[in-house]
């Protein structure tokens, strides 16, 4: 049994045939290029717009399609949740519609209410505001919510991106799991000041490789309170696609 947001095919509850119950406070995907980002859950985001959104489901496969306009690129998206034999097969496909587009990251997201005691593999996770992006979770991994487990396996088909799945505790008191692809491409590199979303492409930090490496994704990798970080975008051509997949086994 599934409870679905009928406007976006977002899942909030799964009850398995064995009577195991799972609750989610967030679902879907996010993507962006540091100039702008889009969230399916919000049906928008920073400097972005979704259009031509359509949904379909036959009880076992839930599809959401549409167009995402970011600054510096337009994409067609297909997001799918397919249910079968106690598993959910999730996938996100982004295809470039504009002559070229820039992309920095994409993530399939799962938000878990903080009331659950959560273990990653055998390690009990404790609420922390700080997280380390480079300490990515193993693939595959097992999340245990109280007595119920979810086995998660991911795959990424995207040149210029690296798998950077992570689990962290949010300010709202919930856990978030991101199956994530992150760009380390040198196609576009810049310093981003968080306040005001300001981009600088002529920063002296960019011209000094050791410092450029140190501050790459430093806000996520080193300290979330940093006022800036160095970001990377991959340049994609019209018709080029990126595919991110996640398999969730509700054992």
Can you describe what's shown?
With 251 residues, the protein is mainly beta. It has 2 helices and 22 strands. The chain has helices spanning 209-215, 218-221; strands spanning 2-5, 10-15, 21-23, 29-32, 37-39, 49-57, 61-70, 73-84, 87-96, 100-103, 105-112, 118-120, 123-124, 141-145, 148-157, 161-163, 166-169, 175-183, 188-193, 198-200, 228-237, 241-249. The chain has a 9-stranded antiparallel beta sheet with strand order 6-7-8-9-22-15-14-12-13, with no helix packed on it. Strands 4, 5, 11, 16, 17 and 18 form a 6-stranded antiparallel beta sheet that branches. The longest helix is centred in the C-terminal third of the chain and has 7 residues, at 209-215. The protein is globular. The mean pLDDT is 91.
Structure characteristics:
single chain; 251 residues; mainly beta; nine-stranded antiparallel beta sheet; six-stranded antiparallel beta sheet
- Strand pairing plus helix content: what structural class? mainly beta
Order of helices and strands: EEEEEEEEEEEEEEEEEEEEHHEE
Q: What is the number of strand segments? A: 22
What is the distance, rounded to the nearest whole angstrom, between the alpha carbons of the first and last residues?
15 Å
Name the overall outline: globular
């Amino acid at each position: 049994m599934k409870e679905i947001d009928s406007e976006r095919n977002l899942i909030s509850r799964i009850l398995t045939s064995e009577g195991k119950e799972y609750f989610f406070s967030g679902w879907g995907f996010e993507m962006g290029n540091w100039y702008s980002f889009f969230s399916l859950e919000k049906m928008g985001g920073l400097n972005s717009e979704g259009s031509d959104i359509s949904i379909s489901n036959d009880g076992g496969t839930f599809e959401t399609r549409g167009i995402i306009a970011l600054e510096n690129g337009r994409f067609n998206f297909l997001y799918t949740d397919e249910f079968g034999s106690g598993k959910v097969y999730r996938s996100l496909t982004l295809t470039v519609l504009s002559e070229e587009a820039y992309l920095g990251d994409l993530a399939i997201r799962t938000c878990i209410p903080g009331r659950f005691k959560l273990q990653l593999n055998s390690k009990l996770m404790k609420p922390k505001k700080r997280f380390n992006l480079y300490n990515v979770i193993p693939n595959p991994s097992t999340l245990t919510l109280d007595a119920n487990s979810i086995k998660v396996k991911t795959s990424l088909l995207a040149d210029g991106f690296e798998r950077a799945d992570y689990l962290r505790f949010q300010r709202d008191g919930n856990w978030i799991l991101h199956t994530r692809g992150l760009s380390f491409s040198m196609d576009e590199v810049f310093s981003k000041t968080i306040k005001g979303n300001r981009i600088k492409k002529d920063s002296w930090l960019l011209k000094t490789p050791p410092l450029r490496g140190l501050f790459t994704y430093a806000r996520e990798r080193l300290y979330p309170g940093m006022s800036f970080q160095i970001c990377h975008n991959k340049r994609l051509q019209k018709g080029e696609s990126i595919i991110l997949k996640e398999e969730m086994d509700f054992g």
